[in-house]
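User: Can you predict the 3D structure for this chain?
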Amino acid sequence: MIRNAAIVLSLFLLAVPAAAAERNLDRWFDSELVPFVTSQLVEHPRFKGESVMFVVFDDGVPASVSNKLAISLRDRLLDAALNTPGVSVGRRQGGTSATPASQSVDCTRDDVHYYIGIAVSRRIDGLYGVSVRALDLEDRNWVSGFGKAWQGALSTVQQRAMRESQTDATFRGARDVPFAGDESDLLAAHLAHELSCALLRETGGRYIVSSNREAGPGDNLAATAELASNNLAAHDALELTDDEQKINATLSGKAHRIDGALYQYWLTVTPTDPANELSTLSASAYVLLPGYRLASESPPPRPLADGAGESVSVPHGGGDALLGPMRILRSQDQRICTRRGDASVRATSYGESQAPCSVLVADSRADAIVFVLEYQANYGLVRLGGPACRERTAPHVVTRGKPMRYPLPITTIGSSEMREAREWQASPGVDTYYAFAVSDTRAAREFANHIDTLPLRCSSSVRRGLENNALHRWLEEFAVLAERHAPHVGWRAIEVKDVL
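Assistant: Here is the predicted structure, written as structure tokens:
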């Protein structure tokens, strides 16, 4: 929990390791990071004879879906390792993810002992951090002495790349990165490699299956098993025959529906005689049926409902929220609408001294960081910059027991009706203010990164915000993030409707 504003800001400053001397990311990457990692992989005794895999870390675990910047940095580090004699890179990255049917299967690099992981983060103050560590998969500990870190500013191109989601092909076939339904050849090659290695480890005998295979019940991807059987035979992992007397096993494929268009496809070889010493062996991978998209691609557009719009479920609204019910106060005293620390206020901000001002007020039930958003009727969702109008999303720290006061761009509510909103909607139909509170600093950084993608409003003039399908996608990602950090988030919303 956050104790006070000083602690909050200290935690943000300490969240990224001390900055490297080189402030340019690319120069630091090439001159310091690459030489360090490659020399460690060659000289450090723990890596001798061991296979490694390069990944992107998210909270210390490999991420199958990340962003383009992190993936590109990982790929550069991987390329350097592949060009360094003496470094053993796991099969999925040291070559193709599946052995070509024309080659003998090589299972020696399937067993990866270390993850070399890169993590890219953004601090609440606008700086970025890059760190690299090595994880021992056997004892689940970080390798002592193996680590490098950088922090500084990213270029516009790098920031844009960090905001774009991308899947990691290393994990193709995992639930988060499934094969497409029309990639049966790639799926078959992947499964053939996995099953080939299992077959070649079997000591009970040789598997002989029919070369005249027909699709069985539940085989939604009929060509997959046929392609896989040809690959298995080419790898010399089993034998195909049309002689019914020699057959001692059957090869079958079946797709099990997991959720919607997502299926888990199983390729299984089963002995025909239960008394046979041969074992039943399987390999599986996830696949999406044709017509659906991968996680890295933009989802197909879907129309929004007319009128009030459809609601989006965001955890912890009302009820046990971190904030009490909100209200908007109007004042002629501009000091009420200027937060401490905002001594330098832009002339274009909504803090003009000659005009009345309005402030969003709510009781604080816990120490937290609050982000304030506004849905402008007919103009979309924006993030509010406060009187200081900072380009980056800045933390608004509130303390338990003290009221939250946040200045708003509207200058009067005398002729308006206000009511509390209990749902997040893609198109509320009226002006709506959302105060989103976060009681965990790490979660707050993630929300700040996501909120940063909204257009910024800093004046009494309406600013075109995020609307329609783009807004719907933003809200869905926001809801997933809120679900992930549900114990640490809470929100309140208030609708403002003009009365004529």
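Confidence is low (pLDDT under 50) at residues 1-20, 96-102, 291-308, 339-354. The radius of gyration is 28 Å.
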